């Protein structure tokens, strides 16, 4: 058995001081770790203000704590306080210019701020020095996407896809760029790949509807007239929209009036000449018509402004056996809110014998994208805006009230119901009801 020799008082004082300091350091470390856990939990829940307060407590105790600085910079960026976030990233980069995590974070914030040139330079620096930094590659793609450089983004992503064709994040980003570009046909292909890789992934209803390139629309209309036989009509429309700029429409309809029937066929093309100027061209033919035009050519231009106002100008040529009728159109559409818009159109028709007439059409619509559309309308004047027969071009006083209800049950199909009351002075009253279905695939 050994006997411990006596120790001097100085030894015991030093030992006691060490133990006290060690205990305090352990407690402080434990306290800071607890603050980190709480701050991260709040950050992940979106409680950014509370998380920032906890990070500031950590930095008050340890002003040089790297994790606290980079995480609070991240939270400030998520919160939208970009300048404050950049201040913290710059603090880290002031210590080490080769801190690529801080460079990446700063590039992200600059891109959110809209400073795409500076963000692109920083992402390029990170990729040059650390080619395997995958988030830097996707960050650079986001810069191209948000700045509208879609082809540059796709070219960059194609290289990434060749290296890792089954990477869900790459496929998702290609899909995002193609959809933003308006290339629905190609986006549809990558959406199918994405769903195959991630069976739980599903895009929003609006996106799914846009990825349906084909639409079939069919309907039936019955017009009850108090002084003559009922008029009936039906139509079948097929449309193809491979991208945001172009749509082709084929229409077949059958009109039955006065115990006679006309068959009508039409081809229409919609094309965006620029981001703010749209064009529509259609050609309609009737085979041996009894009351419809032999041919009809319609040309419309729509100019959209940033203020939510659109201006319309159009010209219709209606060719009958007796000659050609011209209908000139001018109008505007104004969004009152994001869901409510008003439109007005003026129609001026000139008959082949020189007679002229005018009509006015106003509509108020309430919409919720890909869910419903309610339209209430009123028209007065001649019926030039609905010209389907020679008899309706006469300049007589008319008043028409109508309502159209359109409902999407899901992105792929829906229905519409319409009704109208038409009073032709000293002639007849017409009441119409119609129903239709539309399918997208």
UniProtKB/TrEMBL annotation:
Pfam families: TPR_19 (PF14559), YaiO (PF19413). It comes from the Bacteria. Keywords: Repeat, TPR repeat. Residues 228-362 form the YaiO beta-barrel domain. InterPro entries: Beta-barrel_YaiO (IPR030887), TPR-like_helical_dom_sf (IPR011990), TPR_rpt (IPR019734), Ycf3/AcsC/BcsC/TPR_MFPF (IPR051685). SMART domains: TPR. SUPFAM superfamilies: Porins (SSF56935), TPR-like (SSF48452). The keyword Secreted does not apply. This is YaiO family outer membrane beta-barrel protein. It comes from Aerophobetes bacterium.
């Amino acid at each position: 058995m050994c006997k411990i020799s006596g120790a001097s008082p100085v030894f015991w004082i030093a030992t006691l001081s060490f133990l006290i300091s060690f205990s305090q350091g352990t407690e402080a470390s434990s306290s800071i770790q607890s603050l980190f856990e709480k701050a991260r939990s709040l950050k992940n829940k979106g409680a950014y203000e509370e998380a920032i307060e906890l990070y500031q407590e950590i930095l008050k105790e340890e002003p040089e704590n790297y994790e606290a600085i980079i995480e609070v910079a991240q939270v400030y960026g998520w919160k939208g306080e970009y300048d404050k976030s950049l201040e913290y990233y710059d603090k880290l980069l002031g210590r080490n210019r080769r801190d690529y995590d801080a460079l990446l974070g700063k590039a992200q914030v600059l891109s959110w701020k809209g400073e795409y040139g500076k963000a692109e330079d920083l992402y390029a620096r990170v990729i040059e020095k650390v080619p395997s930094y995958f988030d830097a590659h996707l960050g650079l793609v986001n810069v191209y996407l948000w700045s509208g450089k879609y082809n540059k983004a796709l070219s960059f992503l194609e290289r990434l896809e060749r290296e890792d064709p089954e990477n869900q994040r790459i496929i998702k980003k290609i899909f995002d760029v193609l959809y933003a570009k308006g290339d629905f046909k190609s986006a549809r292909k990558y959406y199918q790949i994405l769903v195959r890789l991630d069976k739980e992934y599903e895009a929003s209803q609006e996106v799914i509807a846009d990825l349906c390139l084909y639409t079939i629309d069919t309907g039936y209309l019955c017009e009850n007239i108090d002084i003559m036989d009922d008029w009936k009509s039906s139509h079948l429309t097929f449309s193809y929209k491979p991208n945001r700029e172009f749509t082709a429409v084929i229409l077949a309809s059958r009109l039955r009036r006065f115990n006679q029937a006309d068959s009508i066929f039409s081809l229409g093309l919609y094309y965006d000449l620029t981001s703010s100027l749209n064009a529509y061209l259609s050609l309609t033919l009737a085979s041996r018509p009894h009351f419809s035009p032999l041919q009809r050519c319609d040309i419309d231009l729509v100019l959209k402004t940033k203020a939510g106002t659109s201006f319309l100008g159009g010209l219709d040529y209606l060719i009958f056996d007796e000659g050609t009728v011209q209908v000139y159109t001018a109008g505007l559409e104004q969004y009152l809110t994001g869901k409510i818009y008003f439109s007005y159109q003026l129609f001026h028709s000139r008959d082949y014998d020189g007679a002229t007439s005018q009509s006015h059409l106003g509509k108020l619509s309430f919409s919720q994208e890909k869910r419903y559309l309610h339209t209430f309308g009123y028209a007065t004047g001649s019926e030039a805006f609905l010209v389907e027969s020679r008899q309706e071009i006469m300049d007589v006083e008319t008043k028409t009230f109508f309502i159209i209800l359109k409902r999407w049950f899901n992105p792929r199909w829906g229905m519409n119901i319409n009704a109208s009351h038409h009073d032709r002075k000293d002639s007849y009253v017409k009441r119409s009801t119609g129903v239709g279905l539309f399918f997208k695939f």
